[in-house]
Design a protein that fits this description.
Structural class: mainly alpha
GO molecular function, one term: GTPase activator activity
Pfam families: RGS
Number of strands: 0
GO cellular component, one term: membrane
CATH architecture of one domain: Orthogonal Bundle
InterPro entries: RGS, RGS_sf, RGS_subdom1/3, RGS_subdomain_2
Shape: elongated
CATH class of one domain: Mainly Alpha
Largest sheet: none
CATH superfamily of one domain: Regulator of G-protein Signalling 4, domain 2
Protein name: Regulator of G-protein signaling 16
């Protein structure tokens, strides 16, 4: 709001600011920015900053533990979102990511409640992954393929169970051991282990 009254404090302030050299105003802005940065630094011991630092440390510990848990079992790997992502990246290098994509599609399919959606989703998954010469055909035997085809006539949430189980076993016995031996996972475990050791040395 503009002020036209003589002696108005706001008018005096505006005149005072206008009289300041440009460099002073720029320095003031710079100082304000720096203070803003400093106030958000956790090492200053501010209660919020310290809380953020603790939360970050906790997340790092959790993720390090999670990476090491992936080698305990294939189930542990599949339970972890970051584990599934890392495994998927590895499968891409072997050109076999369709196995995991099919398994994930089946998991999503089981959550479908609408019968109409169930039937359309079942057909879409079958055409993409299961039928002969499908764009992303998974490696299952002829018998399992035919059983799955018959299941489509009365699609239920269980119609891919057998094909999904076969694909899961294939990944667990074949791809998963290679993933654990891969350079990418070995690097992750080294980082997780060193992170855990540094945390212990600081406690």
């Amino acid at each position: 709001m503009s002020c036209w009254m003589p002696g108005c404090p706001a008018l005096s302030m505006c005149r005072g600011l206008a009289a300041l050299p440009i460099t002073c105003l720029e320095r003031a802005k710079d100082l304000k920015t720096r203070l803003g940065i400093l106030l958000h630094k956790p090492e200053l011991g501010h209660r919020i900053g310290t809380s953020s630092k603790l939360q970050l440390g906790s997340r790092q510990r959790d993720s390090s533990r999670e990476v090491l848990e992936w080698r305990e079992s294939f189930d542990q790997l599949l339970k972890s979102k970051s584990g599934v992502t890392a495994f998927h990246t590895f499968l891409k290098t072997e050109f076999s990511e369709e196995n995991l994509d099919f398994w994930l599609a089946c998991e999503d399919f089981k959550k479908t409640r609408s019968k109409t959606k169930l039937a359309s989703k079942a057909n879409r998954i079958f055409e993409e992954f299961v039928q002969n010469e499908a764009p992303r055909e998974v490696n299952i035997d002829h018998e399992t393929r035919e059983i799955t085809r018959k299941n489509l006539s009365g699609a239920t949430s269980a119609c891919f169970n057998e094909a999904q189980a076969k694909t899961r076993t294939l990944m667990e016995k074949d791809s998963y051991p290679r993933f654990l031996k891969s350079a990418s996972y070995q690097d992750m475990t080294k980082q997780a282990t060193s992170c855990g050791m540094s945390k212990r040395s600081h406690t």
